[in-house]
Amino acid sequence: MKFQKANCLKGEITVPGDKSISHRAVMFGALSEGKTEIINFLQGADCLSTIGCFRRLGIEIENENHIITIQGKGLDGLCAPSGVLDTGNSGTTTRLISGILSAQPFTSTLTGDASIQTRPMKRIIEPLSLMGVHIESLHHNGCAPLLIEGQPLKGIHYHSKVASAQVKSAILLAGLYADGETSVTEPTLSRNHSELMLRSFGADIKTDGNTATIIPRPRLTGQKINVPGDISSAAYFIAAGLLVPGSDILIRNVGINPTRAGILKVAKAMGGHICLLNENRDGEPTADLHITYSPLHGTVIEGEIIPTLIDELPIIAIMAAAAEGTTIIKDAAELKVKESNRIDVMVQNLSAMGCSVTATEDGMIIEGKTPGVPPLKGALIHTHADHRIAMSFAIAALIAQGETEIPDSGCVSISYPSFYSDLHSLSESI
Ligand code: S3P
């Protein structure tokens, strides 16, 4: 797909449902008794992989008229899968389901696409093995395919080296079945959707700072879940609104859970005008975001804020390239083990667009624009099949001089199938 510089973006959009929350609603619904209904479920390939896996585990799931209906069978209702579980491109599916499968009275094998087969699974193999499961990386490289021979599990108190909601959630889900309480302490707090949603299904979960503790064997009951818009998807339009001169965009019903909303703080620190309207703080907090064009300046992004914006760092790097001054991103080594090595891939593509950017061990140093000169030039973008890279550079193209080509643009369907039509709806000139 080819992109040109845009004049301005104006109008209103509603981004699709949150990816993390959509995955969890399916999983927790499957483990609950009775019916769970999910409204505004994200129909992206990743979340459909989660539905596919739970159908193979014997759970009836309907996906009709934008509503997902799950007939939950309780904690002990899963059946041995008939074949290999396919987790596609989804790290969340792979890691969270591993926690659940660890406690089942059957053996499962799971794997996903080429990217999933390079992503680190030792981070879950280690704690789940401590709980008593036999879990093996079949190619002995710490990655999927994984063979999981479920066992009765022991409760553990685990100190994770990484701030990862996927690791934390895998352990807490295994903890649902353990013989005593299980806790996870992380170096900095990662997204807390599992803790909030498990509690709403009836689980007994305590949180204290960076530690979450689960009491085993709760009775989980089916729920009605209304999934808020995904701030990670809204991020592209937040950036577009701030970067394209004359823009004025309203993004409706975006999840602003503080463990996810770091981009709002960074955008404000860079001089961005973002106004929160119609805030709703029941359960997962939401708001409408009003974005207006703002000249941006560089900043430093490091420490505790990193897990709250980890998926937004590619688009934040685009904002930094168009800002005045230098932006430094630190403490973000996790970027190297996402759907692609997002430090290398951002540096490669930003450099192709004429930005002066350096990769560091745990982030990037990005030199912003020269005043009076267009910040970027059009280029051929290599997405490495990473949805967030494709969307970030589609936005970069809107402020670049000349044409930008993104050959592998279809990979956005992992998290945001309607991304290009939503972008088009805000601009006649694209
Ligand atoms: C996710 C957690 C994050 C994030 C991913 C979704 C989740 O990964 O990058 O896109 O739903 O729990 P880590 O937990 O590995 O940081």
Explain the overall architecture.
There is one protein chain. Helix 7 (231-243) runs parallel beside helix 9, helix 7 (231-243) runs parallel beside helix 11 and helix 9 runs parallel beside helix 10 (342-352). The chain has 430 residues and is α/β, with parallel strands linked by helices. 54% of the residues are buried. It has twelve helices and 24 strands. The strands form seven sheets. It has a four-stranded mixed sheet. It has helices at 19-30, 45-56, 91-101, 122-130, 165-175, 193-201, 231-243, 262-269, 313-321, 342-352, 387-397, 419-425; strands spanning 2-3, 10-14, 33-39, 60-64, 67-73, 85-86, 107-111, 134-137, 146-149, 157-159, 182-185, 205-208, 211-214, 224-226, 248-255, 273-280, 286-292, 300-301, 326-329, 356-360, 363-367, 376-377, 400-401, 404-405. The mean pLDDT is 97. Shikimate-3-phosphate binds at residues 20, 91-92, 164-166, 169, 190-191, 310-311, 334.
Q: Which terms would index this structure?
A:
four-stranded mixed sheet; single chain; binds shikimate-3-phosphate; 12 helices; about 425 residues; alpha/beta
Assembly of the depicted chains: single chain
General shape: globular
The value of Rg in angstroms is: 21 Å
The biggest beta sheet reads:
4 strands, mixed
Ranges with pLDDT <50 over ≥5 residues?
none
How far do the termini sit from each other?
Answer: 11 Å
Ions and ligands? shikimate-3-phosphate
Strand content: 15-25%
Class by helix and strand content?
alpha/beta
Total helical elements: 12
For the largest beta sheet, what order do the strands appear in spatially?
2-15-17-16
Report the count of strand segments: 24
Q: Approximately how much helix is present in the residues?
A: 25-40%
> What's the rounded overall pLDDT mean?
97
